[in-house]
Amino acid sequence: MALRIGVLALQGAFAEHVVMLGRLGVDPVEVRLPPQLSGLDALIIPGGESTSISLLMSEYGFLAPVENMAKSGFPVWGTCAGLIVLSRLTPGSYPHTMQVMDIEVKRNAFGRQVDSFETDLHIPGLGPDAFHGIFIRAPRISKVGAAVDVLCKLPDGEPVAARQGKLLCCSFHPELGNDTRFHRYFVDMVTTST
Question: pTM above 0.85?
Answer without folding.
Answer: yes
